[in-house]
Amino acid sequence: MAVIRFSLLLVFVLRLGADVSKCACDPAKPETMEARECGLCREAERHPAGEEFFVLKDINPRKPGRWLVLPRAHHPGPHALHEMPKAERDRLWRFAIATAREKFGADWALAYNGWKVRTQCHMHLHVGKFIRAAENSNFKLVRRLEDFPAPADGGVWIHPVPGGFHVHTGEEIMETALVR
Ligand SMILES: [Zn+2]
Ligand SMILES: [Zn+2]
Ligand SMILES: [Zn+2]
Predict the structure, then answer these.
(1) Fewest beta carbons within 10 Å, which of 12, 79, 84, 128?
(2) Around ion ligand 2, which residues have CB less than 5 A away?
(3) Does the pLDDT of residue 56 top 90, yes or no?
(4) 103 C-alpha vs ligand 2 centroid, how far in Å?
């Protein structure tokens, strides 16, 4: 119980620490991207304009087994998944799945944390090895990535199963299903 209370407190502190929903970063005005929560926006700006998506090693030393997949383009405010145009979202998932397979074979998982709990505004998917013990019943079996949902609230985590993918939703922090 103490552990649960501690982690709830931590989530609360993280939420106080950075509210990316009000981010006003604008790539046309570099001075608007100097905030700590816009670090991944600045990273995206370092990539050539023609590169639609890119892969980044997670720089957190406590997550040595993690990568991030990010779009080069920016979206307003918290760069929310449901606000990304559908065709771009499909290409992002396709690129992320290919990256995850290349790094982890059949044992991959992808996670998108809800924008309310993110500490970085720029859209990013977490790529890692799937923790089997994290499996739960809160999923939909989806056959094609074109049918992945984009909830306005909460996050998404995805892992492959025979015949398609499990798409898990209903929580904000989803990256805990991935090995750090
Ligand atoms: Zn920002
Ligand atoms: Zn951005
Ligand atoms: Zn599952």
Answers:
(1) 12
(2) 41, 74, 122
(3) yes
(4) 25
pTM as predicted: 0.89
**In this structure, how many other beta carbons lie within 10 angstroms of the beta carbon of residue 154?**
17
Q: What is the pLDDT of residues 86-143, one digit of tens each?
A: 999 999 999 999 999 999 999 999 999 998 899 999 999 999 999 999 999 999 999 9
Asked if the model's pLDDT at residue 59 lies above 60, the reply is yes
Q: Where are the domains of the chain?
A: 2-177
Cβ neighbours, 10 Å, residue 70: 23
| Average pLDDT, rounded, for the chain | 91
Element (H, E) at 3: helix 2-17
Residue with tokens 């990304």, as numbered in its chain = 84
Residue showing tokens 């998932």: 93
Nearest ligand to the CA of 140 is 3
- List Cβ<8 Å contacts ≥24 apart for 100-105: 100/127, 103/67, 103/127, 104/128, 104/129, 104/130
- Cα(115) to ligand 1 centroid in Å equals 12
- Does the domain made of 2-177 have the CATH classification 1.20.5? no
